[in-house]
Amino acid sequence: MHERYVGASTLGKGIDFADEAAYSEHRRMSKRILVVEDQEDLRGVLRDLLGSSGYSVLEAVDGRDGVAKALSERPDLILMDIQLPVLDGYDATRQIKADPNLKATPVIAVSSFAMKGDEEKARAAGCDHYVTKPYSPMQLLRIIRTYLQEQG
Ligand code: MN
Question: Is 90 exceeded by the pLDDT of residue 116?
Fold first, then answer.
């Protein structure tokens, strides 16, 4: 019936909205997180995790798409994969942080490899925080809440 207003979740904590107005209000009030991730399965995991936690999730599939959506949507926080096609997470973050409107937007780098020097490179590119895959969902949420200055 109003299936599209239910945030389906692998955690089983989907949010059920009464109607479209309630859904719109939630969309307006909730913090918006841009997920820049080229792997569809990982985007799905983050969509479920963040959606069920009350965030609006925007998605980008490569670095260039990430920069474009950051500029047009001005999300509250960005989760940035490092290993991305077209433009990697370092370059995408550099371009995002060079924009006056996005300079203060927290960027959390997510990397597949715990490579020596990776975190330093991410920070040098302007990333505010750095996590390696696989990460604990609860730990990631705690970091996100800290940057969005929410109680958690
Ligand atoms: Mn990747």
Answer: no
